[in-house]
Structure formats: structure tokens, C-alpha cells
Design a protein that fits this description.
Blueprint (H helix, E strand, L loop, with lengths): L2 H16 L4 H16 L3 E11 L2 E10 L2 H4 L5 E5 L8 E4 L1 H8 L6 E7 L3 E7 L9 H4 L1 H55 L3 E5 L5 E4 L1 H7 L3 H4 L10 H17 L3 E8 L6 E12 L5 E10 L15
Antiparallel strand pairs: 1-2, 1-6, 2-3, 4-5, 5-6, 7-8, 7-11, 9-10, 10-11
Length: 311
């Protein structure tokens, strides 16, 4: 008996078993190494055997060396129960293989049970001439293969669950984004439809958003207003007045109302506006900024005039 040959085959198979985390590549690689070390030309792995009278159904999980057999991978096949016994055996029994191979001539087989997980079958037309005890040397490897099959299935189940969770989270995010976009579109349409001036500033007085009536106040587009402050559009005295009212609302922690004379850069209209400024807070209590809404009350005050802007 070639001791070095046995150790080399054993070590080669252990490396093959330990190097995969997916079931199909694991079984294919193990079959390739078994065929190499035994001289059989065809190999198959059957898993999940279920006895049904004199026959046993099992999942053909992998097959190499025979094209017709490989096309059946993934199917459950009915086989004679004796073909999947739980004992390693080197046999010449064409009748037992006929349900599996039909008229293809592979009467010889080496059966290697994989514990309760299934069976490895190596098939050939003749018995290979071999000095190795083929029914003995692979049994420890089959035990390791059984454990590797369980680990691969667990890994694949976890991978599928993670993929499912990822896809569900992605779908939920996409749905939330669509809802958010619809809400944003609705709010934008509502803001632009309102005759009142509407705007939002951050705590430092930098504009975050505004509607079209407000754009006419400064004679600029929303894109040109966002990121800038009142000091970029009006005299310092008036900008400081607006800023003081913003800070008063922040300090109060609630909506505050004041009157402001506004002169529109677009069209030159000048009117008295009742302005409500409301501090806006995030869910964690942090200050987002100040929401402003200005309503023209000039007509209620008896018409326009030219009082000091900061009166």
C-alpha cells in the first residue's frame, strides 16, 4: 500500500472541502478530486434521500463526466434503495444502475456514503486497477464533506436572507422616496399657488427654500436665493431687522408675528405685510430653522405708504 499516495489523496480532498462556501462548487470540486484519485470517469452526488418502499428518491446535487446525467442536476430521481446504502462499497451491478443511466454502460460503481446527508457515486465501465483501499480511505473525508454541506447550506440560507432583507429595504426606500417626492411636489405646488410669501431659513439666517411670490420680492430665482441671506438682497438696516425677528421667534420657541414693510424688486410694489415666523425642530429636538409666512395687509391698513422700512 502506498502510504504517501493515501496521505496525498486525503490532504488534497481536505483542501478541496475546506476551500468552498457555496454548495454547488463544493460538490463539483470534490467530485473532480475523487475521480482524479480513483480513476473513475463519472461522478454524482445525491442528497436528501427519502425512502419510498423499494425505491429511494434523492436530489441529484452534482454530476460530472456524463452529459445526460449532468442535465438532471437539481432533479429528484427515483433509485433502487440498495444503490444508496449507508455502507461504502465497490461493486459491479449494472442492474442497480439502470434506473439512473438507462442503456449507458457504466456497470461498476464506488459508493461513498456522506453520513445522513446523502451519497457519492463514482461510476465506470470497468473496475479501476488501484492499489488504494477505495472503500476505506475516503470515509473520514466523507464525514468532513457532510459537515461542509451543512455549513454551505447555512451560508447560502443566510446569504439569501440577507439578499431578501436588502431587496426589501431597497424597495421600502424606493417607495419612501417616491412618497417623499410626491409630497415634495405637492408642497411645492401648494407653496407656489399661495399668494402669501413663504420661505425657510436655517438657524444662521441662510435661505433653504422659498416660493415664487417670495422670489418676486427679491427679483431672483429660488436657486439664486438659496444659500444666501437677507444681507445679499436688502440694505443692512432692513436685513438686521429681519434677522432680529427671526431670532425672536427662535428664542420664544413658538410662532411670533410682526408687521414688515416690503418693497418688491420685481414690479416695485410696496406694502405692509403681517409676518409669522415659526421655529422648526427636527424629531431629535434640534433646530432646523425658521419658517416664514408673510400676508399682505396693506388694504386693511388703508392703503400703501412710505413709512420707514424698519418701523
Amino acid at each position: 500500500m502506498n502510504r504517501e499516495h493515501i496521505l496525498a489523496a486525503f490532504y488534497d480532498l481536505i483542501l478541496a472541502i475546506g476551500g468552498e462556501t457555496q454548495l454547488a462548487p463544493l460538490l463539483t470540486r470534490v467530485l473532480q478530486r475523487l475521480l482524479h484519485h480513483t480513476g473513475f470517469p463519472v461522478g454524482a452526488v445525491f442528497l436528501e434521500p427519502v425512502a419510498q418502499g423499494e425505491t429511494t428518491t434523492a436530489l441529484l446535487a452534482a454530476a460530472i463526466g456524463d452529459h445526460a446525467l449532468a442535465k438532471k442536476v437539481g432533479q429528484r430521481l427515483a433509485l433502487p434503495g440498495e444503490l444508496l446504502r449507508d455502507k461504502a462499497e465497490l461493486a459491479n451491478d449494472g442492474a442497480a444502475l439502470e434506473p439512473l443511466l438507462g442503456n449507458r454502460d457504466y456497470p461498476c460503481f464506488l459508493r461513498l456514503p456522506v453520513n445522513a446527508a446523502g451519497t457519492v457515486l463514482l461510476l465506470g465501465k470497468t473496475m479501476p486497477r488501484h492499489t488504494l483501499p477505495l472503500t476505506q480511505i475516503f470515509q473520514p473525508v466523507m464525514h468532513n464533506l457532510s459537515q461542509a454541506i451543512q455549513l454551505c447550506r447555512h451560508h447560502e440560507a443566510v446569504t439569501r436572507r440577507l439578499a431578501s432583507d436588502r431587496d426589501r429595504a431597497r424597495n421600502e426606500l424606493e417607495a419612501a422616496l417616491r412618497r417623499s417626492e410626491r409630497e415634495r411636489s405637492f408642497l411645492r405646488s401648494l407653496m407656489d399657488t399661495l399668494p402669501d410669501l413663504v420661505w425657510l431659513k436655517d438657524p444662521e439666517g441662510v435661505y433653504l427654500a422659498c416660493n415664487q411670490p417670495f422670489c418676486r420680492l427679491y427679483g431672483a430665482s429660488e436657486a439664486d436665493i438659496i444659500g444666501r441671506t437677507d444681507h445679499d438682497f436688502v440694505a443692512r438696516e432692513l436685513a438686521d431687522f429681519f434677522r432680529a425677528n427671526d431670532q425672536a421667534a427662535i428664542a420664544a420657541g413658538r410662532p411670533t408675528t410682526n408687521e414688515e414693510w416690503l418693497t418688491f424688486a420685481e414690479g416695485g410694489y410696496r406694502g405692509l405685510f403681517e409676518t409669522t415666523k415659526t421655529p422648526m425642530f427636527a424629531a431629535d429636538g434640534s433646530l432646523v430653522g425658521v419658517l416664514g409666512i408673510a400676508h399682505d395687509i396693506t388694504a386693511h391698513k388703508g392703503g400703501g405708504g412710505n413709512p420707514p422700512a424698519a418701523s
